[in-house]
Amino acid sequence: MTEAELLKKHRNLVKIISQSFKSSDLTEQDLFQEGLIALSKAVKTFDKNQNIKFETYASRVIKNRLIDVTRHGKANPENRRQAEARLSGEQVTTGHTTEDLWDIIEKSKEIKTVLERECTQIERAIFNSHARGHSYEEIKAIFGISHKKIDNTVQKVRNKIRKHIKNE
Length: 168
What we know:
With 168 residues, the chain is mainly alpha-helical. The chain is built from nine helices and no strands.
């Protein structure tokens, strides 16, 4: 299935989740559009080998995005155009320059280096699970560790990454 087909198929999931978020600063349409952006991210980052249903994964990614957006009280107006383009199957441009994209690639290489050289195997596994959008409950079920241990590990890895990037 193409990304556009998956987005259309799971559009109601976004609608249901976005309706449960009420915000004085954001319209239902803004929340729905942000949810579509999150669904698009879920489609791109879903790993079939993780023994989790796509709907479960997508729900978590969508909820996390909407929590973040409502916390900050604003949606990115560009997201509406991108969401509509994704639904119609158009190619979406990010607005990044080539230089920005190279910077993103370099940062991701640095993060990978930090994970490989400075983190234990369990730290990498927990951090990668979190980065893929798994909730603390899902990570807890996989690794059998407490929420506090998960949070401490994620923060520890983030600090290692920040320290490495700051020293560059």
